[in-house]
Design goal:
Helices cover 45% and strands 5% of the residues. It is built from 9 helices and 2 strands.
Length: 148
């Protein structure tokens, strides 16, 4: 017997917790406890204007870059797309389901502008947790940079 056709109707409210949908053995779960970016905002404050529209959160930028470097996503466009659809990446970046992911052009402009102008040294920002991490090294625009 052919069942009745079901019409799709989105629920008005959802109860959804990203924490429940990221596997316990996911690589980002093992890394997140070592990522401490609390003092980064004060370090970057001088390069941001006090007037105009709010910019992309610098912590979100760094977390997205870390996802890209750790997971091997080298394209900024693909990184923005992956953070948009991947629940584990959203969880690591502290984005809820309804939070917008920066557009690729905005992400690129901030990365190549503010972050490079800031002389940001991740090892300085996260020096307390570096002793607990194994050595990570990344390349920022072709230049070798050591995380710890």
């Amino acid at each position: 017997m052919l069942g009745p056709r079901r019409e799709f109707q989105a629920a008005l409210f959802y109860e959804f917790n990203l924490e429940d949908h990221v596997p316990d053995d996911h690589l980002l779960r093992s890394i997140v406890r070592f990522v401490d970016l609390d003092d980064m905002r004060s370090h970057l404050r001088p390069i941001y204007s006090h007037i105009g529209r709010p910019s992309v959160d610098p912590e979100l930028m760094i977390r997205m870059l870390l996802v890209g470097y750790i997971m091997g996503i080298w394209s900024e466009r693909r990184l923005c797309d992956e953070v948009h659809v991947n629940l584990a990446y959203r969880w690591f970046c502290r984005l809820d389901l309804g939070d917008p992911v920066p557009d690729q052009s905005t992400f690129s402009k901030n990365r190549h502008g503010r972050l490079l102008e800031s002389d940001l040294d991740l090892s300085r920002i996260n020096s307390a947790s570096c002793s607990r991490l194994t050595r990570f090294s990344f390349k920022f625009d072709g230049r070798h940079s050591s995380y710890c």
